[in-house]
Every structure is written in structure tokens, then in C-alpha cells.
Write a structure and sequence with these properties.
mainly alpha
Length: 387
């Protein structure tokens, strides 16, 4: 079978990684390291630092804090992803090399279909997420500026009020500050899109490998060689080794993204809570529409990985059932012993966890939604006490 380069489905991600300064592989351009540090400092470290400084100068009022927190939690989640890519460069490179290794290659047309379908899904998912993100970001950033140009309304900064700046300074340099925030939120969006879709793509490719394994195990006794007994055990042992490599690959993904997952899921819970609370405050109808779509996107951002995390758990559990579908009863004792060992291992399903605290699963998503609502009721109680 011809080599299927699974990393090809991440070509778009890699192009953006180069531009965003987080490309994990070697680049010939000798100044790329400086470019990377300057770019990340300008649009992540400095950008988030100014947003953090803004809270110190804000009026001590819950409503004001809630308004400023809507994007702040997203910025913190993006920072964790960027730092992960910069610190874990070698492990991310190992992930990419593992995908194209011989172990994860197909040996027949059926297995090739599984892999290519997963790659097509990854490309399609990237296009959908990028389209929605570009449109949402463009509308949020451009609509106040267009309204300011054609209507007698003041220009409001799109992300943070920068309360540490004097009113005179803000009025004088409103356009440079506005464009810096606009570019900054756009870069944060690009980081989000191209890191999140990469992580999800890895999960999809893991599911494809589990589907290949399931097919191999169900048909392991269909091989016919002159030395049938030895051949049968060889094929089964290859499947067991394949499963072990997939388990190691899941562990590698977890080692790289574990802390990032914890931060992202924690921040998503806070964002949903803040958006729910913001609905209780007076605003124009179009702002309510923005809040609804923003909260929906945040929910999808954690629900989709949880959905595919559940599929990884389910698929790995089904492997212990798949081996019993083959014609194993008349086989030799050695073959049956190998089956017993494999079933014991497969009964511990594969999963990806966030900081060793929670697995990516739909039950985790439900718990996060419950905690977000609990925080919302607490904020409402604090608001009533202030009133």
C-alpha cells in the first residue's frame, strides 16, 4: 500500500503556526526564533498583560468587572495554548512523526479508507471553524468602527477599556489603541482555531486507528498460511502491539495538552457563567445576539472534544468484544491465552484527561455546565446584595 501521510491534513494549521510564531519543527530562516519571541510577546504577553492591568484600575463594581471579563478568560486560555506549543516543541514534533510512522500506516484498502475519512473530516472541520471564527471576529471588531464612521457615536474599544489610560490620552490615540486591540483579538482567534483544530484532529486520527484495530481483531482468524498456527499468533501479536502504540500515542497527546485542557475547560466554565450573568444586565438587542453566539461557540469548544473523547473511550472498550467475533474457539491454547491478556488490557479504556483530574467525556461536559450555572447563581446572589 502507498504511504498515507496523515500530517497532510494539518498543512493549513502548520502554515498559520509559522506565521503565529509557534511552529514546532525546524525552520531554515535564522531569524525565526527572534520573530517568534517578538510576535508572541506583542500579541500574547503584552496584550494579556495590559488586559490584566486594566482590572486594577477598574471601578470596584461587579457589573464593570463582568463586562471586562467576557474576553479576558478566552485570552488566558489562548495564552496557555501558546505557551504549551513553545515549551512542548519536541513532544509536538514527536506527535507529528508518530502519525507518519510505519505503525500507523494502513495495510489494505479498508484501513486506508478509515484514515482518509478521518483526514477529510479534519480538513472540513478546520474550514467550518475558521469560517465561523473569521466572520464572528470581523463583525465584532468592524461594526463599532463602521458605526463610528457613519453615525455620531463614540468609538468604544472592542476588548478592554484600558482604564489605566487617562481620558485625554484615550481620546487622542483612540485609533492606534483600537487597531492594536483589534489585531490582538484577531491573532488570539487564529491561535485558538489552529491549536484547537489540531488537538481535535489528533483525537479523530486516534479513533481511526481504533477502528482499524477493531477490523483487524474481528478478521484475525481469516488469514490462511501454510503454517497456520504460527501465522495466527503473529497477526494477533501485531494487533496487540498496534494497540499498545495507540495507547502510548494517547499518553503523548495527554502529556502535551493536559494542563492546556484544564485551563481551557476552567475558562470555558467561567465564560459561560459570565455570559449568563451579562444577559441579566440591560443592553441593546444586537449585543444580546453577540452574547448568545459567543456563549454557544464556547460551549461547542468544549463539547466537541468531550464528544470525541467519549468515542475514544467507547471504541477502545469495544476492542475486547471485537476479538470474540473472530473464530477463536477451535484455536490453539497459546492463541486463547493471548486473547485473554489482550482483553484484560482492553478492559481499561483509553482516554485523554485534563491535568489528571477529568477525562474528556460527555459526563465532564455536563459537570462543567452545572458548575457554570452554580457560579452564575452565586454572582446573582452577590448582585442582589450589592443592590
Amino acid at each position: 500500500m502507498p504511504l498515507v501521510k496523515q500530517t497532510d491534513c494539518f498543512i493549513r494549521n502548520m502554515k498559520y503556526w509559522k506565521f503565529l510564531g509557534i511552529y514546532p519543527l525546524e525552520i531554515k530562516w535564522k531569524f525565526y526564533n527572534w520573530y517568534s519571541k517578538i510576535f508572541v510577546f506583542a500579541f500574547i504577553i503584552l496584550y494579556d498583560g495590559l488586559s490584566t492591568l486594566n482590572f486594577y484600575f477598574l471601578e470596584r463594581n461587579l457589573d464593570h468587572f463582568i463586562e471586562e471579563m467576557i474576553f479576558y478568560f478566552t485570552e488566558l486560555a489562548v495564552m496557555s495554548k501558546v505557551l504549551t506549543f513553545m515549551i512542548m516543541r519536541e513532544k509536538i514534533e514527536e506527535i507529528l512523526k508518530t502519525l507518519d510512522s510505519e505503525t500507523f500506516q494502513s495495510i489494505n484498502e479498508t484501513e486506508t479508507v478509515f484514515i482518509k475519512n478521518a483526514m477529510k473530516f479534519n480538513v472540513k472541520y478546520w474550514k467550518i471553524v475558521a469560517l465561523v471564527s473569521y466572520f464572528s471576529n470581523f463583525v465584532h471588531v468592524s461594526s463599532p468602527f463602521i458605526a463610528h464612521l457613519f453615525l455620531p457615536v463614540p468609538l468604544v474599544l472592542p476588548v478592554s477599556s484600558y482604564s489605566f489610560l487617562s481620558e485625554n490620552f484615550t481620546e487622542t490615540f483612540i485609533y492606534p489603541v483600537y487597531f492594536y486591540q483589534s489585531i490582538g483579538i484577531h491573532m488570539n482567534m487564529l491561535y485558538n482555531v489552529n491549536i484547537d483544530t489540531f488537538f481535535l484532529g489528533l483525537m479523530i486520527l486516534v479513533i481511526a486507528q481504533l477502528e482499524i484495530l477493531e477490523q483487524k481483531l474481528m478478521t484475525v482468524t481469516n488469514k490462511h498460511d501454510s503454517n497456520y498456527s504460527i501465522s495466527l499468533n503473529t497477526h494477533l501479536n501485531k494487533s496487540i502491539i498496534h494497540f499498545d502504540e495507540v495507547a502510548k500515542f494517547c499518553d503523548l497527546i495527554e502529556n502535551v495538552f493536559s494542563i492546556t485542557l484544564f485551563v481551557q475547560f476552567s475558562m470555558a466554565s467561567c465564560i459561560i457563567c459570565v455570559c449568563l450573568f451579562r444577559f441579566t444586565l440591560p443592553s441593546p438587542f444586537q449585543y444580546y445576539m453577540f452574547l448568545a453566539t459567543y456563549m454557544f461557540v464556547m460551549m461547542i469548544q468544549i463539547m466537541v472534544p468531550c464528544w470525541f473523547g467519549t468515542r475514544i473511550i467507547t471504541k477502545s472498550r469495544l476492542l475486547s468484544e471485537a476479538i470474540y467475533i473472530c473464530d477463536w474457539t477451535p484455536r490453539c491454547r497459546r492463541f486463547k491465552s493471548s486473547i485473554r491478556v489482550f482483553v484484560e488490557r482492553a478492559n481499561r479504556p483509553l482516554s485523554i484527561t485534563g491535568w489528571k483530574m477529568f477525562p474528556l467525556s460527555l459526563s465532564t461536559f455536563t459537570s462543567i455546565m452545572n458548575s457554570a450555572y452554580s457560579f452564575f447563581t452565586l454572582l446573582r446572589y452577590m448582585q442582589t446584595r450589592e443592590s
